[in-house]
Protein 1
Amino acid sequence: MQETIELEARSESAAEERWSVEEIALAAEAYLSMLEDEIAGREINKTAMREKLRAGGLSGRSDGAIEYRMQNISHVLETMGRAWVSGYKPAGNVGPTNTKVLKQKIEELTEGKVYLPRARAAVFSQLVPSLDQLMGVKAVFRQVSSFVLCFGGRGDGTARASRYIEV
């Protein structure tokens, strides 16, 4: 009997911890607002956003729960090949149902927008070991659609060596 009551109590506690679709949607909307600010170069204030959420539709959630949900959103964005807020390192354990809800909400909120993932930081010497191997540089002043840099061989025209670097 004691074991049954304990299991029921754990089940009630687990149910209280589940996020509703509405709560997930509110978190995703707030998250994408911060992401747009970060991409635009505007400073983001995670604390102010969390306080705003707790004053509204996420009043029953702790700061830690909201922070972890934001990290879950980063994880989902990362699996979608998209940029995520640098202050929210991706955290897995999202669960298939919440992942599906988040992906649908992200698709809905970002329709017609492109959020590319961040390029890996690299030092120029890691890409081109010596200046005599540099064939040219192209400046790009708008968003690009490619994530790969290609460096071809230089020399007598018979060189076939190429380096492809995914960024």
Protein 2
Amino acid sequence: MTWQKRFLDISLSCLCILIFAIPFIVLLVVLLVLQGRPIFYVSERMKTPTQGFMLWKLRSMEVSTSNSGVTGGDKKKRYTRFGHQLRKFRLDEFPQVWNVLRGDMSIVGPRPPLRNYVEDYPELYAEVLKARPGITGLATLTYHQHETKILARCKTAKQTDAAYRKRCIPQKARLDLIYQEHQSICFDVSILWKTLAKVLR
């Protein structure tokens, strides 16, 4: 990561905290009252092919110790009262600003994968994770809705995992590698702006 990209990450993260601190605190209180604890969902993701970190999100599903992995149609009954709204407007990902400040993630980059996928596809993720994982990215911007539709049709965790491996991982990796080839501060700003516009629409 260049110092310019790191500077952009820190600057934007601090700006987000200054602007959204009070609305975020209000949201936390609402979630605490209506959904109860825990407010946050913390899960391991991979920063490099060998180094993991704990990714923070607002909890959008009921707590379960037996059902992990990517989210598909098999998990639709586990959404909390406001879970769909949190995910729709990407509000569940706001705590990842903390991961950016820590240096675990960047604002823009490939979405951080689960350890089991990195271990099962080491050569692929050795290339993808040459870029610091991000909150949004080219793959997120252009493929996220299609991925959601694919996984929403899955009825079991096994089907979700199989569909993700076969149909999502290769396409997202291809886009992540395209991002690496053209990565620049201007490209990052463009992706971020388009992501915000898409969420607001």
Protein 3
Amino acid sequence: MRLSLGLLARIEAKPEHAQDVHDLLTGALSLAEAEDGTLTWFAFRLGPTTFGIFDAFGTDEARRAHLDGEIAQALLGEGARLLAEAPDIRPVDVLAAKLPTTERV
């Protein structure tokens, strides 16, 4: 399946909860791995309190399912406590990608 659709999310933690957001995102890897339609998933840190997620999908149905899935629910459920603002989640089109066949960070 060709990955052609993605989501790019910017997440701003409250300073006192940056480690909690870090832990939530690193712990979410197993949830992303369990989603058949999520072809690739990355959580990353941009600064002391700024985090992000990029994920890619082969179909719009898979992207919508991910938005309704456990990772989004965890972020939204803990958002008021952990986040300085609502996550900025944007749909994107993947134009090109190079991915290793088996690589885990």
